[in-house]
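Posting this for the archive.
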Amino acid sequence: MKTISMLILSNIFMTFAWYWHLKDKGIPIWKAIVISWGIAFFEYCLTVPANRLGFASGWNGFQLKIIQEVITLVIFSFFAVFYLKEAMHWKYLVSFAFILGAVYFAFKK
């Protein structure tokens, strides 16, 4: 559970680092990059230990990556709807369902 919690927090930082600047088109790209690097630093401070902890707990690299992608999509969905004010469309939900299928197969014994 600690791995999942750290990955969730890291993804919040990652999502903001990658997408916060989309609403503010007046900011110069170099400034957006520098600010994003600063935000991403905190993402890395959580992701690296989370992956080490998960790997030490018995998860393999594929499982860690797949769970990371699911967390990324969930966090990004909230970000897109509430921050970017984009509509959630049914086709995105279907796409997410297929990714959840990938999680099932990745963790199936």
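The chain has a mean pLDDT of 93. The chain has one domain: 2-107.
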